[in-house]
Amino acid sequence: MLEHQKWVIQQVSNDKELFKKELYKSLAWLEEKDIEALVEWLKSNYWSTNSEEIIAVFRIYMIKKVNTYYYQKIEK
Q1: I need a labelling partner for 46 at 20 to 30 A (CA). Which of 21, 22, 59, 63 fits?
Q2: Ordered DSSP codes for 16-60
Q3: What tens digit of pLDDT does each residue of 57-75 get?
Q4: Domain ranges of the chain
């Protein structure tokens, strides 16, 4: 799945909105270890051209992750 998402991201990298949309999909579908690999790949290949989009998507991803963690603690 990671390789597929890399391919899709490469195809849409010139369209910033589609790029963000595919990043969101990737975060929803990939496992944690694949997300870490995706981040490294994005930094190596797209940081100079799409850093704002990468930061925006991962900021929302981290906020959701932290909120989920705290909600789980509260429910216990």
Answers
A1: 63
A2: HHHHHHHHHHHHHHS-HHHHHHHHHHHHHHHHHHHHHHHHHHHHH
A3: 999 888 887 777 777 777 6
A4: 2-75
- The model's pTM is 0.82
Token pair for 66 = 């932290």
- The letter for the amino acid at 53 is E
Residue type, 29: W
Q: How far apart are CA 43 and CA 33, in angstroms?
A: 16
Residue identified by tokens 């900021």 is 59
Q: What is the CA radius of gyration of the chain?
A: 13
Q: What is the distance between the alpha carbons of residues 2 and 31, in angstroms, rounded to a whole number? A: 9
